């Protein structure tokens, strides 16, 4: 196999990896905030439900969760599984998994805010929602960017777990090429891709953190 053909195939897998990464963040970041607020709710049932959810998501392997989300509809409800569901099963499993981690990061950031800020906002006539959206959340985001960055970088590498339900992303393609061609070149190329992807994301997140310095 020529280098150009190999890179073309790896490029197709790279697109899938980037899609998994992008869609997971798109769904898990807002979901994580919702879960964090539910976790901090005064409603005991809601609070305990989200606590159990977070515990399960953080306490079991992501690969196991992928398998449960993909095969669960068939084994539990007898629903036929189409090949097109594979990709969306990955997005669903990744999103609910990472939402649990993001929820705890959000919660830590929110609980670290001084109570005096809430009291000052109340004196100025802000409602609870206005206080949270305009005063608390911007500062929380600034505080949690480093922790979010760590999870985002982990997500880039975790996209390789999609191979467990036969979704053809970058690592799956590299492994197939290495097996058929008996060469390590595809692994090296995949490694470079993951490194560059991580580097770009780290630079972007650092740039965002610097732009939020005015909240300090």
TrEMBL record:
UniProt subcellular location: Cell membrane
One GO CC term, this protein: ATP-binding cassette (ABC) transporter complex
Annotated family: Belongs to the binding-protein-dependent transport system permease family.
Topology term for the membrane: Multi-pass membrane protein
Entry keyword annotation includes Translocase: no
GO molecular function annotations of the record: transmembrane transporter activity
Domain of life assignment: Bacteria
Annotated protein name in UniProt: Amine acid ABC transporter, permease protein, 3-TM region, His/Glu/Gln/Arg/opine family
Keywords assigned by UniProt, alphabetized: Amino-acid transport, Cell membrane, Membrane, Transmembrane, Transmembrane helix, Transport
Biological process terms in GO annotation: amino acid transport
Organism of derivation: Flexilinea flocculi
Domain ABC transmembrane type-1, residue spans: 14-205
Transmembrane residue ranges: 14-38, 59-79, 85-103, 184-205
Main location (coarse class): membrane
